């Protein structure tokens, strides 16, 4: 096979374009977690979501070209008790029958220093959508990328806890969505 300057130039151009493109990463379920952290009767509680789908299109050299989408099955929140798990899926809480998914779709990802990103996007829970921005750390781990972040929200802004549960004396309004995503 004869390699010409034109063939070599085309190959190098193809490699440079591929290197500059974002890469679709697949989350490793064994090394990924998403949880809600809140206070119940002033006692900290951390409950993990068991079902979610994460799509990350990430380029460490050009984070502004990156995108992320997260879908969480609201009925999959595990509070460690079967009855409580059923309760949070009911209408007053997540209303999982009508709103089975909470979603986040990024609109901007920007570098915020070495290993740090600022992520902006739309968070939708229980039919309510708002713009959110949160810090994210990212580090390489072999062939994988590890993303860690926290997103503070007010549960009542999304109607999570209606009726008698609007009283924040039992369950605080402040909730932190905490996530650790390992993807490659």
Question: How is the main sheet built?
Answer: 11 strands, antiparallel
- What's the total count of β strands? 11
Annotation field: number of helices:
2
Amount of helix? 10-25%
Terminal CA distance: 35 Å
The Rg value, from CA coordinates, equals 20 Å
3D shape:
elongated
Structural class: mainly beta
SSE layout and pairings?
Layout: H1 5-20, E1 23-26, E2 33-40, E3 43-49, E4 52-58, E5 67-73, E6 77-78, H2 82-89, E7 101-111, E8 116-125, E9 128-141, E10 144-154, E11 174-183
Antiparallel strand pairs: 1-4, 2-3, 2-11, 3-6, 4-5, 5-7, 7-8, 8-9, 9-10, 10-11
Please give a handful of descriptors for the protein shown:
single chain, 184 residues, mainly beta, eleven-stranded antiparallel beta sheet, 2 helices, 11 strands, elongated, disordered N terminus
Structure, described:
The protein is mainly beta. Helices cover 13% and strands 49% of the residues. The longest helix has 16 residues, at 5-20. The two termini are 35 Å apart. 24% of the residues are buried.
Précis, in short:
The protein has 184 residues and is mostly beta strands. The chain is built from 2 helices and 11 strands.
